[in-house]
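Q: My labmate handed me this sequence with no annotations at all. I'd like to see what the chain might look like in three dimensions before we decide whether it's worth expressing. Could you predict it?
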Amino acid sequence: MPAYNMEAYLARSVQSVTAAGVMDAVEIIIVNDGSTDRTLEIANSIQAQYLNDIVVIDKANGNYGSAINAALETARGKYFKTLDCDDWYNTAHFIDYVQALSDSDEDLIINGYSYYIERTGKVISAFSYKEPGWGQAFDLATNVLSELRLDYQLNMPAMAFKTDVLRACGLRLLEKTFYTDTEYTYYPFQEARTIKLLPLDFYVYYLGREGQSMSPTNILRHFDSKKRVIRRMIDDYLSTPSKTLAHRN
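A: Here is what I predict for the chain of 249 residues:
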C-alpha cells in the first residue's frame, strides 16, 4: 500500500483488508513515501493494533515506483498485490479472493475491479465478465489470450503476480517518476507462464479525487514522466531479441 499524504483515506483502505478470516493469510505493507501530513502517524497507530500482520516502511519521497520497490524488498507472501490508499477492497469479495489465491499456483492472477465515481457516488464495474475464460487457468504459451478477447485492461488493480515472478524478472520501477504502474504490467508479464482469470470484483478504484495523478490536468503536468516510462519499455523491448513476446501476441 503506497501512501503519500493519505491521512484522509488510509484508515478506510486498511480497514477494507483487515477482515476476520484473512489476517492469518495476508501481510499488509504500508509504505509511507515521505508524507508531510499525518499519514505515518496513522500508519503506525494501525500497525500497533495488528502487530506482526502489518508492516510500516517509512522512507523519503520517491514517488509510486519507489514505494513498490521498497515493499517488494520485504514482501514474504506467495502473491504480491497492490492497493492504492485512496482506493479500497470490497471486503466480502476480498475474503473469497484470498482463499482463491491460497488454492492457486499460476504466475499471474487476474481479478475484476470497479470504479467509484466521486461526482455521482456510484460504483461501476469495469467490465461485464461475459467473455469466455473467466474462472479458468491458461498456459500463456498457447496463445489463447488473443482468442479470448476479454473486456478488461491489464493494469495494476486487476493483477496479482507471484512474488517470485516479480523478483525473477528483476523488477525495479523507475523512481521520482509518475505512471510507473505501466512498467508493473510490462516487465513481470514477460516472466509469467501461466495465468488464471478470477471473476471476483473486489478492487474499488477511486476516480475524481482532487490531485489524482490520472486527472487530465496532472497527466499534462507530468507528461514527461509518461514519455520516460514508455521510452524505457520500448528500449527494453528492442534491446533483446528474446523479448519479442511472440507467445503472447
